[in-house]
Here is the input.
Amino acid sequence: MEGLERIVLEHPFFAGLGPEFGAAISGCARNLRFAAGEYLFREDEPANEFYLIRHGTVALELHAPAQPAIVITTLREGDILDAAWLVPPYRWAFDARATGLVRALGVNARCLRDKCEADHDLGYELMKRFVSAMGERLHATRLQVLDVYRPQRA
Amino acid sequence: MTTAPESWAVPQPLRVTRVRRESSDIATFYLTPASPFAFAAGQFNMLYVFGRGEVAISISGDPGEEDRIVHTVRAVGAVSGALAQLRRSAVVGMRGPFGSSWPLAQAEGSDIVIVAGGLGLAPLRPAIYRVLAHRQHYGRVALLYGARGPADILYQRELETWRRRLDVEIEVIVDHAGADWHGNVGVVPALIPRMSFDPQHTVALVCGPEIMMRFTVAALRDRGLAAEQIYLSMERDMKCAVGLCGRCQFGPAFVCRDGPVFRYDRIAPMFGIREI
Here is the structure.
């Protein structure tokens, strides 16, 4: 098994994925490294690549004019960034900043989308994983929005 | 003929010897008892502000220190607001300790996962002191703490001290933060899949807002913990503190007498009932 394919299959997001799918995904993947403070992408940029974090932490940020950035969540080793590559208009909805050294796998979005179109088994397998990951993230976001730690008047 | 009131019913006047402001609306204050004060981690006292009223406050100090009684209070009502404004040398009435405690003796030999949300760290702090004081009796120890934002993190200096230890895994996560915060942002249940513990031999201690506890229990169950391995500290409005008045009834239980610490399987049927 090639090095990149092994890395793909070892990532928790792809746990249990068949080797044939691993080979297909790794054919679109590359290793990436980001220094502390470097942005993986910015809001409204084309989502040409999605990322699997292998090491480090990435802060997802939103900006308002003349305001400091707000960190909406942090992602770590084993997490993915994100699903904007999967559905039109293929644009990022936030900034992603490396808070320290980040090592990641970058997967070319068009390459993988084409493979998913050609092989619906691969597409369905990926879709199940992304829907699950996005569902968990949505669930966590709802809990954040509830602001459960706010002071409650007696 | 008059009858002397039961000892549990009479507040003991105690002087505040130290106050520490944790945030704009949260304060920790220290009372000095006339004689050694013993309590078990997880128990609470009824604190009486003369002329205002009485409220149940969990004990947040070290069970190994019997010469002082520590409480952390957030100003949310008339009585807790007055407690949070206490100054040194003020006098409050105290009844207690009351209620059940964290199962720390039973948990010896197990991994311990402590999950706290917001002010829920206060009733868990005595358990943390006790576990760390007897660290050799436990397996892996993890503390997961969720707060509203970096400025709302309770006992920040102690968390930093505990974090320096090599035998405790500590994760702090906040709901929202600025870019100058270098820690986790998100919700505390999301940390649970990442923690290293043996689900077969783990005891989880959980305290925080009920919604947070509900999702924390779900995440712990997903990791393989049985309901019998999870303990929660419940909060209800309490008055008598001994299960007589019924104010804190929680299904067939009274939170003041049978709780505040409950094993999850014993309250699971009530936990999801919306009107309870």
About this structure: The domain at 111-271 of chain B is CATH 3.40.50.80 (Rossmann fold).
